[in-house]
Every structure is written in C-alpha cells, then in structure tokens.
Write a structure and sequence with these properties.
By secondary structure, the protein is α+β, with helices and mostly antiparallel strands. Among the domains are: about 230 residues, Beta-galactosidase, Chain A, domain 5; about 90 residues, Immunoglobulin-like. The chain is built from 17 helices and 31 strands. The strands form 6 sheets. The protein has a 9-stranded antiparallel beta sheet with strand order 1-6-7-8-9-16-13-12-11. The protein has a 7-stranded antiparallel beta sheet with strand order 2-3-4-5-10-15-14. A hairpin with a 2-residue loop joins strand 25 and strand 26. Helix 10 runs antiparallel to helix 11, helix 15 packs antiparallel against helix 16 and helix 16 packs antiparallel against helix 17. It binds alpha-L-fucopyranose.
C-alpha cells in the first residue's frame, strides 16, 4: 500500500506548486515550511467581494437584465429557426450584458512565523503532509537540536492549529499577519491574542480572524506593531479561527457578525490543550478518511520525495507508478474532506477552499458547466456523503434568485442558474459569447440532489430537499421547451454546447440534461407516491422530448442536432457525452456506445485536468479500462503539480476530484440499477483490492482481485431489497455467505452476458447484512 503521505526535502518556494494544503471545509491553509520564516497562507470560504452591500450605483443585479428586453429571446429563437445557427457574438449582444459586482474569492492573508537563529542550511529537512491523519509537518536538525512543527485544520474545533517544538529547547518566534488588502482591517495584539478585524471595501462584508498563542513556559509579548513574540518556551502552539458576516440568504446575503463565533472558537480550542485538540482532530479526520482504501500493489522507495515520484511517473508497470495512483486516489478524498464539510458556508469552488490572491483565475468561483459538479463526483462513490452537504445548501440557496431570473428572462416558472455563479446568487448572465448562456445548469445541479437519494435511499431528503428543487427546475423546462419545426420534438432553444460552436436548437447536451432531469423528477415523484398531475406533465414532455442522441456522418455521436461535428476538433469539453456520464442514457452494450467511442477517439486523450478526468469516466463507462488508465496517466504526467494539485493551468481542483472519482468508476458502477463489479479494470492493475466504495441502493462494497479477476466481493446493504449485480465473478463457481447469519446463501441467476463472460445475478439483501462472495479454485 502506498504511503499515506506527501513528502518533500525542501521548503515550498511556490504557493501553487509546492505548498501543502490543510482545511476543515470552512478554513483552509497552505503550509510552506520555510526554516527561518514559516508562511501559512489562509482562507475562510465566505470572504468574497461582489454582490450586495456596495455602492448604490450601479446596484448588484444578480446578472438579471438591467432593462427589460421584450422579444429578445424570441428573436434569437427565430434567428436559429431561420438559419439553423446563431453566432455567439450576436447572441451575447442580444442576450448578454457586462457583468457587474460579480466579485472574487479573497485570501485572508498570511501568518508569518519569524524564527530567530534559524540555520541557513538545516540537516535532515523533511516536509510532509500525512493525509491519513490530516497533519502537515516540518522537521529539521540544527545546532544539535531537532525542530518540529505540526499544522492541522480541525473540523470539530473550527480552528487551524500549529505547534513548534525544539528538543532540546527553547522555542522562540514572532508571529505576524499580512494581507494584500492592507487598508481594510486593523490588527491588534494583546494577551497572547492577535485580532484581525475589518470589512471589505468593495461590499462592506465584515470579517474577523483571531490567533491565540499558548506556550509551555517562556513568555508571549505583544508588540505595538501587531505582533506576538514567544521566547524561552519549551514548546508553543497557536490556534486560528476566522469568519465573516456572510449568510446564504437572498437578497442581502448577510448574517451574524463573526466576532462571537471566532472568539469562542479560539478560546475553546486554547482551553483544551494541544494533545486533546490534536487527537480530536485526528479521530474526526480518520472517521471519514479510513472508510475507503485502495491497494493496487503500489510500492515506492520509502524516502522518495513525492515531487520526484511524480516526475518519474510514466503510467507504466513500475510499482512506484501504482503507488502514485493510489496516493492520487487517497489525496482526492483528503482534499474533499478538507474543502467541504457540513456547515461550511459554501461548497468547494474552483480551488476548493484555497486561494492566495485577491484576483484569482475565474474568481475561484462556482462554474456550473462541469467544474462544480465534478468537485462532488467523489462525494458519494468514495464514501464521503456528508461532504456534499454544503453543495446541497448552495443549490437550495440558488432557488430564490434563480426564480427571479427564470421569470424575468424567460417568463417561466421554476429557477435557473447559468454558466457560473458566486455566493451572492448570480443566476443571470454576462456577455462572454462562448461561456455565458447555460440555463441547463440548474437541472445538472439538482442531479446531485437526486444522486444523494439514489446512494442513500434517504426518503426524508428526497421529499424535503431534493424533490422540491428538482420539481421547480423541471417546471422551468416544461414552460420553455419548444416544438422543433424540423421534426416536432421538444427542444431547448437557444441551446449552447458549453464553450463550443454556434447557438442552435436542441444541442445534445441540452437535451440530455433535460432528459435526465425530467426522468429523475418523474422517478422521484413516483417514489414519493405524489404529485400525479405533475407526473403526467413530465411524462408527456418526456415522450415528446428530443433525447439528444443521434449518430452522424462519420459514426460519431452528434454534438448538435444537425450534423456539424468536425472530426478534427479536439475541444476539451465533450459535453454531448453527458448521456454517458454523469447521465445514464447510454449503456455500454446499447446502441449509442459505439458512436460515443468514435466521438471520444476524435476528441483525443489530451485536454485540461478536468477534461482528462471526465474522459476517465467516459471510458470507464464504456468498460475500456486500459483507455481510462491512459487518460489517468496523462493527467498525472501532464496536469499535476509537484504538490499533486491538478493544474488547468492554473491550479484547479476539479481534476483532483474527477480523477479520484474516475478510479472508483473503473472499479465499480451502479448508475443503471446494476452493481457492475470491476467494469473497467486496466491491465496495469492485475492484482489489488478496494474497500468502502459506495453504490446506488445504499450499498457499501469491497472487492479483491488477482490476475485481473475478482476473487472476493463483499456487499453491505443498508436497506432490504433486491440487489442486481454483474461481473465475471458470477460466471464461475463461488461461495456466498451472509455475514450476519454465518450461513451460506444463494442468488437468483438472471442472465449471461454474451461476449465478455460476465453474468448478472440478483441477491435478496437484508438491511444491515454483509454478503461475501468468494471465487472457488
Ligand atoms: C470551464 C472550462 C474552462 C475552465 C473554467 C473554470 O468554463 O471550460 O476550461 O475550467 O470552467
């Protein structure tokens, strides 16, 4: 098994490429490990400019049209009907508008620890991130003493914590805060406490951070310049808490002043003492992290630094390569735990919870034409369901502003959000021609609410959270789908396949997303046994809907309803394959799979990090494990930084999450109502095991395999009910035990799957029971 740590033998010189991330879903920090100067850049998720609260003129508009535009949408629809396409520039001129007060995620600044008498060149320098415990550390020797620092972000205690120790002592340092927005806050220091308090000039958002320093022996002195200096201590530690008065409530997006919560968090943490704080953190982290483990038989030399391991990686047969793949999988889970936990003010954005800038790329926002969605692909499959809670709340909070956009722009019921959004309910449009129009985003987001139900079978969640948002998103499409004069089917118009081509009526992705939404909403309504008139309306729309699946002149799955695809086009978005993943219209042995493969071949194996990670999923769903692995290997060689962050470029975390989820997708799938065991195992992974994967139907699954064949399968059912399963394991002799009774039990043998030697069987599972299949011989 891979070492569960990233390790380096020099301090980080660069935030994006080398520093190491810690986080508790709300707070994030990047640890540099400098010897004479430790730098800890930190974030609080809701420190965002933009939105309401700024000057009255011009007021924040959520991206809704500032002046009514009667007939504008109809004119674009007519243009498309007459000419087949409309140019993005023209549509943006008619339907877009310059974006105002959109804002950007902000760094909270840096904590610096100046260490007097530190050596120029220490001995045995080690910088590590132990992802199994969630602890970053720095160690070195100098002048006959060993120096050690540890840092972590505690979810239960809502602080970032750090400790410095020297054996033999003493410990001494000076701590200060700096910010790239020097004018918007004051820093005060007294009684071992640093207080950073201010308000963003842009929107008046109030923010506060406090640091409390605690030392064992020695003294802490407060400087008039806002510093705290520790001298003569045996050891010293600090805790940092931060907050803002942001709330996800439309229209003012303001809540409680952060002072009380921040002060309480640092005081309570300081009160506890370091050992308790650390052990509470490690226990909390491991409760999530240890649920899942992947073993591909990887092995890396124990002292090989991670940057060198990554640089040497070729995606070949070397066990060190497999060790990196295992680590990348585990790191994706680590990063999700660190950047999204229940109660966090916002979900994981383009950079998770991390950002060192006041003007990050794309504002480090919430792009909803793939990126935010990809961030949460690992949440359920990788057994971290609770990390999706901030996403669920974010989606719920978009409904109020999204309803206004639906009404004002489309004259429709329901709610929408377009290509990207911010914490302030930006559900309307801007005017970047190839990336401003995407009302399908709401439908794609509620897919995640329904997935939560499919994985957990939590009917309370379905009734109270998922269904109301799905129903309202579906109502929008019931009002806006239009009969296509070409063939009478219902289509989305204007439709735009993300970041690509012209505006048309009924592009594949638009149709497939709407198909997914209407299908899921109908299923949900049936599961709840309610809403019969709405069910009938959904059924009628589905019957008339163009499903967005069409095979074109060169055998490709068409991206547009007319055959416009260029076989030489290698654009990173492959949006027309939504039906393959995350949708479920395309089955690997069904009529569209071949065309999907033709399209994917033409698009090629390149692309940005998220693009490759999506392609890992596509090939896994086509059951081509070797091709999926090739994409994963390409991501590790071309799109991964020394600290194993995904790079678009720049750093963009969706690729990390997408790759981890893609590995799971190669080993287990359940989206079509059948538990597919080892659907896309690559030849590079002949022997291995995985445990703690989750599948639809409230199932937890473990698999071991040898020489490319499953040897054991354990399935723990959360609910009573039939579990259909498919795999080569069931085609040869095996034993099956019910762990709860200890008895042998049996399955119903359904079908053989011609061609690949797999069979499908059905187990009558009992909730709480674990079933173990073991190949014989
Ligand atoms: C989408 C992508 C870009 C980038 C941006 C943040 O629009 O097309 O590649 O990832 O999001």
């Amino acid at each position: 098994m891979a070492h569960r740590a990233l390790r380096y033998d020099t301090p980080a010189a660069d935030w994006e490429r080398e520093a190491l991330p810690i986080g508790n879903g709300t707070l994030g920090a990047m640890v540099f490990g400098g010897v004479a100067r430790e730098r800890i850049q930190f974030n609080e998720k809701s420190l965002w400019t933009g939105g309401p609260g700024g000057p009255d003129s011009p007021p924040y508009d959520h991206g809704n049209w500032r002046e009514p535009r009667p007939g504008a949408l109809a004119a674009v629809q007519r243009l498309i009907e007459e000419h087949g396409t409309a140019a993005p520039d023209d549509v943006a001129a008619r339907l877009g508008q310059p974006r105002i007060r959109y804002g950007a995620y902000q760094t909270f600044g840096d904590l610096w620890l100046e260490i007097p008498g530190a050596p120029e060149t220490p001995d045995r320098y080690r910088r590590r991130l132990d992802i199994g415990r969630g602890v970053a550390s720095v160690e070195y020797a100098a002048h006959g003493a060993r120096h050690r620092r540890e840092f972590f972000a505690s979810y239960p205690d809502r602080v970032i914590a750090g400790r410095l120790s020297t054996a033999p002592g003493p410990v001494a340092f000076t701590l200060r805060h700096t910010s790239p927005r020097p004018g918007d806050h004051h820093v005060t220091a007294h009684d071992g406490r640093l207080t950073i308090r201010g308000a963003l000039a842009d929107n008046g958002l109030r923010f506060e951070a406090q640091v409390r320093v605690v030392c064992d022996g020695g003294t802490v002195t407060a400087g008039a310049d806002g510093t705290l200096t520790v001298t003569g201590a045996h050891g010293a530690w600090f805790v940092l808490a931060a907050g803002t008065d942001y709330a996800d409530s439309h229209p003012d997006y303001r809540g409680e002043d952060p002072h009380r919560v921040v002060a309480e968090a640092v005081d309570a943490a300081a009160e506890q003492g370091w050992p308790t704080l650390l052990s509470r953190h490690v226990r909390d982290h491991r409760a999530l992290f240890d649920r899942t483990a992947l073993d591909l038989g990887g092995q890396a030399p124990p002292d090989l630094p991670t940057d060198r391991q990554r640089a040497a990686y070729t995606g070949g047969d070397d066990p060190a390569d497999r060790a990196l793949e295992e680590l990348f999988f585990a790191y994706g889970r680590y990063l999700l735990i660190a950047s999204s936990r229940p109660g966090a003010p916002l979900p994981a954005g383009l950079q998770g919870v991390w950002n060192d800038s006041v003007q990050p790329a794309w504002s480090a926002d919430y792009h909803t034409n793939i990126n935010l969605q990809m961030n949460y692909w690992p949440a359920h499959a990788l057994n971290l369901a609770e990390t999706a809670e901030p996403l669920h709340r974010f989606i719920t909070a978009l409904r109020a502003p999204g309803r206004i956009t639906a009404r004002e722009m489309f004259g429709a019921r329901g709610w929408v959000v377009h290509n990207e959004t911010n914490p302030y309910g930006f559900t309307g449009v801007h005017d970047w021609p190839t990336a401003f129009w995407f009302p399908e985003a709401a439908a794609w987001l509620v897919h995640h609410l329904y997935e939560h139900y499919r994985f957990t079978l939590d009917t309370g969640f379905l009734r109270d959270t998922a269904y109301p948002a799905m129903r309202e998103a579906a109502a929008f499409w019931l009002d806006t789908l239009r009969p296509d004069p070409r063939d009478g089917t219902l289509v989305v118009s204007p439709g735009y396949s993300p970041e690509h081509g012209d505006f048309t009526a009924g592009p594949a992705m638009s149709q497939q997303i709407v198909h997914d939404l209407l299908t899921a909403t109908l299923e949900a309504a049936r599961a709840l046994g309610d809403d019969l008139a709405f069910q009938a309306a959904l059924r009628r729309a589905l019957d008339a809907l163009d499903p967005g699946l069409r095979i074109g002149s060169w055998g490709q799955l068409q991206e547009w309803k007319a055959d416009l695809d260029d076989p030489a086009d290698t654009h990173r978005h492959a949006s027309h394959l939504f039906a393959l993943h995350p949708g479920r219209q395309i089955a690997p042995d069904g009529p569209w799979a071949g065309a999907a493969a033709v399209s994917l071949d033409a698009r090629g194996d390149g692309g940005t990090g998220w693009s490759r990670a999506w392609k890992v999923h596509f090939w896994a769903r086509l059951r081509d494990g070797d091709r999926a692995h090739r994409l994963l290997a390409g991501q590790l060689t071309d799109s991964t930084l020394p600290n194993l962050w995904d790079t678009h470029p720049p750093f963009q975390i969706d690729g990390n999450f997408g790759a981890a989820a893609g590995i799971a997708q190669m080993l287990l799938q359940s989206h079509r109502g059948v538990l597919d065991v080892l659907p896309a195992l690559p030849r590079r992974w002949p022997d291995g095991s995985v445990r703690g994967l989750r599948a639809h139907g409230d199932l937890t699954v473990g698999i071991t395999w040898r020489a490319g064949r499953a040897r054991t399968l354990t399935v723990t059912a959360g609910h009573d009910g039939p579990v259909r399963m498919r795999g080569a394991l069931f085609a040869r002799p095996y034993t099956l035990h019910d762990g709860a009774t200890g008895h042998e039990t049996a399955v119903r043998d359904d079908t053989g799957d011609p061609g690949d030697g797999a069979r499908t069987v059905t187990l009558a599972a009992r909730g709480g029971h674990t079933y173990r299949f073991a190949a014989r011989g």
